[in-house]
Amino acid sequence: MAQPGLIRDALGALPILSLLAAVYLLPPDTSLSEVRRAGVLHVCMPPIEPPFVTGDAKAPGIDVEILQALVRDLGLKLAPVPEPAMGRDFNPRGWHVTRAACEVLAGGVVASPMTRSFLETSSSYAQTGWALLLRKPAPPGGEGLESGPLQGRKIGVFTPSSGLDRIALASQLRAAQVQVIIVGSPDALIAGLREGRFELGVTERLLADQIAARESWVADWLPGDLPHYPVAFGLWKGDLTLKRAIEGGLGRLARDGTVATILARYVGKGA
């Protein structure tokens, strides 16, 4: 007759054995082998999202250039898949992208908790968050603009479709009692600063860095406790073999200086 203790031990082991059996029966992850078989990496990205995707063949954007180097490293070809919804909605669940369309998502993907609830993310190549753009040096005859306190100042704000927290930004600016002028594009932000319609600009950090490098202005993190997030590439959950291959390629590109060179070309420095 079986001993009661042995029966209890056997019953206690059943959940573990069931879990192991379920894992064993999972279909194999073929994400990398399927991409290698096709020889192409399909990447969903917004048509325009500077500085990540520009639409300019000579300077296509940070993400596009990193991906071009990555597919060369992996022996693949890059197939961009324009997804306009990615340029309109900061919530990844609103992008309407599927596995059938692409294996990777790019274009300034912010590796925030919201994004990671929906996607896997690669290792990061930069940090993003809300940044302050200062017009410096000033136009001839004008005085330089220092950051100083934000209270009561007139600030132009461009919020791109990246997954940064717009509600937290609005709360901080409201608490500082600033005069907010919403603009609809990077060009409008630049024009407003040049023409003196507002004193300072606020936008995503890498875009601010790009503008600052081009205009000889200054960009810095927006004062306060707003979070900073990694910028990465998105992958579908469960595509572990493809993720490992991409991680390996990104690591090699970081070590040989390729990523830093690309960043310097767009934002004037490694990020």
Task: Give the helices and strands, then pairings.
Layout lengths: L3 H22 L5 H8 L1 E6 L16 H13 L2 E6 L21 E7 L2 H4 L3 E2 L4 E3 L1 E5 L19 E4 L8 H10 L3 E4 L3 H9 L5 E5 H11 L2 E4 L7 E7 L4 H16 L2 H10 L4
Parallel strand pairs: 1-2, 1-3, 7-8, 7-9
Antiparallel strand pairs: 3-11, 4-11, 5-11, 6-9, 6-10
Would you kindly provide a written description of the structure presented here, covering whatever features stand out?
The chain has 271 residues and is α/β, with parallel strands linked by helices. Helix content is 38%, strand content 20%. The longest helix is centred in the first third of the chain and has 22 residues. It is globular, with a radius of gyration of 23 Å. The relative contact order is 0.18.
Task: Explain briefly what this protein structure is.
The chain is of the alpha/beta class and 271 residues long. It is 38% helix and 20% strand.
Q: Order of helices and strands, N to C?
A: HHEHEEHEEEEHEHEHEEHH
Low-pLDDT ranges? 17-26, 138-147
Backbone CA Rg: 23 Å
The structural class is: alpha/beta
What is the straight-line distance between the termini? 69 Å
Helix content: 25-40%
Number of helices: 9
Roughly what fraction of the amino acids lie in strands? 15-25%
Give the key terms.
271 residues, alpha/beta, 5-stranded mixed sheet, 9 helices, 11 strands, 38% helix, 20% strand, globular
